[in-house]
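Students often ask why we bother encoding 3D structure as a string. The short answer is that it lets us treat folding as translation between two languages. Here is a chain of 644 residues written in the first language.
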Amino acid sequence: MGAIPAQRETVTRASGVPVHGGVGAETRTTLPGSALSPGSARSLVRSALTEWADSGLPGTEHLSDRLVDDAVVVVSELVTNAVVHAGTDVELACRLEDDTGDLVVEVLDHHPSRAPRDGEVEAPYETPEYGRGLRLVSRLAESWGVTYRTGAKTVWARLPAEDPVAARDDIETYAQERALERGLRVAEILAPEPQRAERDRDWLNRGALSFLAEASDLLAGQLDENLVAALAGQLIVPRLADWCAVWLEDEVAGRWGYPRSGEAEGGWAVDGTAGTGPRLARVWHGSENLIEELRRALEKEPPLPPDTHRTGPAPYPWPGDALGARGVRGTALAYRLVAGGRPLGTLVIGRADLMRFPDEVTGLVEDLSRRVALAIGAARQYARQATISRVLQRGLLPGAVAEIPGVVSALVYEPCDKGGPSGDFYDLFPAGDGRWCFAIGDVQGKGPEAAVVIGIARPWLRLLAREGYRVADVLDRLNQLLLDDATEAADAAARALVGPVAPGDGPQTRFLSLLYGELTPFDGGVRCTLASAGHPLPLLLGSGGEVHTAAHPQTLLGVVEDATYTSETFELRSGDTLLCVTDGVTERRSGSRQFDDGDGLATALAGCAGLNAQLIAERIRRLVHEFSGRPPEDDLALLVLQAE
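And here it is in the second language, the structure alphabet:
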């Protein structure tokens, strides 16, 4: 189908587009000026058109699969153009005229001074992330135009409905096309390049933009580099190539120890036996029975990266016999995967019985390889942060919980953010002289600053306890320590990670809520002395099922200079249970309600009478999770101490 000449119209109607018939179905939405908006717009329009057709609304008899596809491409281009070149929120409208069946798309932005980009001087693959201008729109639309109003600009396009008579003629010719299909297959085998090149050109002219946009949506947010490699293979094969392979490298140049001897002309290794090389993460072929043989062949010839970080295609040795009788000859190209100036791997594509790839295909794959590299880089960054966080978290928490004579303990610890240090912490350790100490605390905030405070508080708790300081004295000294040292350390960590503090902001005190206690076993029970500094109060469950608080509230640590703390002492007899929690338990939300509203935690604990420590901990954890249908939004920690 040849391109329909664009008919630019000057209009003054408020809608921004001439109305030729009655307005039937219509959908409108507002999208943010972000890179995710084109994908959202495509999904919205395709879903709306499908729903209209299923409902049999007037005008939908003119809807065809091709018209829907054209509408999705036009919407993707117009929204991309508006997001990139206007940078404001975008208002999208799509309506179907019930008498003509024409589909009208309008995209409004709030930056009328920036004209839509026509992109005529660009190569079709150089900067796809900025849209391809209005070339596709002019090709697919019957007419299009731009309407300017105060503070807004609307770009609209009218897509004509297909002629129902012509559509019926298409159906009648379908049987004849099926009869020719076998002959065409034979012709393609005998002369594959012209046939395939023609299909490539048609698809690239119509669908390449949507392909890149949808590929970006698919790759965005993937947190596993091996999954990114697998998705790359599925995106490329069979649309752009017969097979695809992805190698992944260590991020530090040279760590793989690439062999420099035996290199083939063009910069690719011909002998992968000497030294180590990149890891072949994924091999994909249109014929699954060829994948394993192709993998074995490719593993013998890993790509040797050139000295530069050029991402453009470079020749790669054809794997030959690994592809069977039809794959004796062909062309393969390698693309370096580079993100942020770091080489991450190599993407290789191949097609049999082809002397060279069309420029449109090589350019499109180069665009896709950039997106793959960015996704791999993001996945590695996430993996690095997760590893650092796990190591840091292990250093902030005890390796094992101490066993106390005459006391059974149970612990539940669930950080909300699996990728960063938690603000909650706990400890249970021997303090000497027949004493054991326990602590459960919560630092204001999360992340590195919270980790700094925990890294100060927990070792100081142990040191002061083992030096013989009693509960109230430990809290007094820890409070002063936080005021003196933790503020400076947390502020230094924030500057190192975020940058200089703005003038006037100053260092921020990191508050700490803490429940700290000391246990001393004796014949017939355990003596417990504890104090709560701004922390949810502990609950004591008696052997008869009665529940009451075991401390009184006091000020948070790190808030008031020269604060004086007091402690309380009581005895745990056989069967008595002490429950200590963080606010991730008491403040668990379900709508406007919290778990501890109306003494909800005490009620839940009363229902645990007769259970052992482990079962009590598990039941409270389950009740907290079941309180709301949403996942917890805060760290959760609880400690159960039960006298035997």
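Translate back mentally: The chain is about 35% helix and 25% strand. Keep this in mind for the problem set.
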